[in-house]
Design a protein that fits this description.
This protein has a single domain, classed as Alpha-Beta Plaits (2-Layer Sandwich), CATH 3.30.70. Helix content is about 10%, strand content about 40%. The protein has two helices and six strands; from the N terminus they run βββαββαβ. The strands form two sheets. A four-stranded antiparallel sheet has the order 1-2-3-6. The protein binds iron/sulfur cluster (2 copies).
């Protein structure tokens, strides 16, 4: 189940945003460009906070409140499909 406060999808780009306690109450925005993503699951595996999960071959944010803004998913995605801000 998705618990991100806001989820938008436009032109194959999905954006989750919300306040995360794990990021000391900061606003977190995670964007996925589905045209670049090949569904390798690296981002899901590498997230230290288990914030992401796979759904229909794409990663989704299951709880944005768990995201610490560590940037690992963005840095390790081989296809530059994820952006964390
Ligand atoms: S690491 Fe990148 S390409 Fe792989 S599933 Fe995650 S977003 Fe998609
Ligand atoms: S920024 Fe870090 S905590 Fe947030 S989803 Fe990516 S890997 Fe997980």
């Amino acid at each position: 189940m998705l618990t991100g406060l806001s989820v938008e999808e436009k032109n194959h780009v999905k954006v989750w945003s919300g306040i995360s306690q794990k990021a000391r109450g900061q606003l977190v925005t995670i964007s996925l460009n589905q045209r670049f993503c090949k569904g390798c699951e690296i981002c899901v595996e590498i997230c230290p906070n288990k914030c992401l999960e796979m759904e229909n071959s794409y990663p989704v944010v299951k709880d944005i409140n768990l995201c610490s803004k560590c940037m690992l998913c963005e840095l390790e995605c081989p296809d530059f499909a994820l952006t964390v801000g």
